[in-house]
Structures are given as C-alpha cells and as structure tokens.
Write the structure tokens for this entry.
Amino acid sequence: MGGNLGDKQKVFSDARALLLEQVGEITALSAIYETEPWGFESADYFWNQVLEISTALSPAEVLHQTQQIELQLGRIRKATQYDSRIIDIDILFYGNQIIESDNLSVPHPRIQERKFVLVPLCEIAPELMHPVFHKNIRQLLEECPDPLKVDRVPNMQV
C-alpha cells in the first residue's frame, strides 16, 4: 500500500486495521518506506509498505474489499493514473496465480519496474518466485532499473 497525502501514519494504521477486519490475517509486514513519486512530479513523498495477508476471499473479493477500504479512508480516484493520493492498496500477488481480467492483473504488471514495491517486498519475501518472470524478488530488485530513492522511515512502529 502507498500514499502521500494526509496523516500517513494514521491512514496506514487504519488501513492495516481495516484489512485485518475485512480481508484476512496479516501474516507479515515490511517496515514503512518513504519514496519519491513514481511516474509524476509531486513535492509530497510517498509512504509504502507491503503486507502479506492470509485470506479466504477470492482475488475478485480481495479487490472489491481493498477498493472499499480505500473509499472508507478517503481515496478519490482521478482520471490520471499517477497522482497524489491518500491511500492506494494494490494486490501484488495472490499465491502463485496468474490472473488477467478487465479489472485485475496479478501479479501486478509493474512490480519489476518499481523499487518502492520491490524493497519492502524483498524485506518480507526475498525468495518469493514471480510466476511470470521465474525470478525471485531479490533478483528482480537487483535488476530493477528504477533510480528513485527508497528510504526506511526511521523510528516507525508498525
């Protein structure tokens, strides 16, 4: 999940609580990282965190619930794909499934291009194999061309 608007500490805490309540048990979570905006210009840096969740929901149900949580937390979707936002909750993987539908692509199609995803993901699942590229997360991070800074937020309790 990521966001760069509002009280990020409260938004992330509320998002984790809602995910636990509505999606499933959080079985692993990374530290929170501060990152430069990717794909657009903004003075507001993002916070990013990766969670592993054990769920009984289908991928479509997880997508629906995460979008509802985004709305609950004040997310307003804009026409432009890359923009500042209070919260964005993406499904990066769903086990080792490959899903292509009109509204869901799993694994997330740009994981390999984004250090702000790979750094926290590598923290909790470095050996996780990408089912399309057949490389683990550590390898994808080593090969990632993204030059943007990804820094751990110091003294952050999650």
